[in-house]
Specification:
Structural class: mainly alpha
Number of domains: 1
Number of helices: 5
Distance between the termini: 20 Å
Strand content: under 5%
CATH topology: Four Helix Bundle (Hemerythrin (Met), subunit A)
CATH architecture: Up-down Bundle
Largest sheet: none
CATH class: Mainly Alpha
Radius of gyration: 15 Å
Order of helices and strands: HHHHH
Number of strands: 0
CATH superfamily: Nucleotidyltransferases  domain 2
């Protein structure tokens, strides 16, 4: 296994830990939506960074899913349009983690939908991981923290 595969596999495993938390919290009415959203955002962030690693692209230290999605598209990888919905999770990385989630209906997170899209993204990354060609090149800049 090359460093590319190792790095992407590590990100996939770390995202699976966040997804585990999401699975446990899904049906818990007492689970704060901010915490659910945080773990959904974290899982998505790690999975998107794994896509960039598999595309042999270094990724920035960012929690902005929009930036990661844009970088993936710029690298020539076609993401399913459904993954555009991931963009709504970005505020859960920092803003909603330290502030109160607004009560407006448009700011409410649909927990089953959020988990569903994380599952779909995880399957997409797993598929990429099995289909991508290994190369020995691995730039040091690809080692940024998730």
């Amino acid at each position: 296994m090359t460093k590319w595969h190792e790095h992407a596999t590590l990100l996939l495993r770390k995202a699976a830990q966040d997804q585990y938390v999401l699975e446990k919290m899904l049906d818990d009415p007492l689970a704060p939506v901010e915490i659910f959203g945080f773990h959904a955002q974290q899982a998505a962030e790690k999975l998107l960074k794994a896509v960039l690693v598999l595309a042999r692209r270094p990724y920035p230290r960012t929690h902005r899913l929009t930036e990661l999605i844009d970088l993936i598209r710029q690298s020539g990888i076609t993401l399913p349009e459904r993954f555009e919905e991931l963009r709504i999770l970005s505020p859960f990385a920092v803003e909603f983690r330290y502030d109160i989630l607004p009560e407006e209906p448009e700011s409410r997170l649909d927990k089953p939908s959020a988990l569903g899209i994380v599952r779909e993204l995880s399957a997409f990354v797993e598929s990429m991981l099995t289909n991508v060609q290994d190369h020995d090149e691995y730039p040091e800049s690809a080692n940024d923290e998730a």
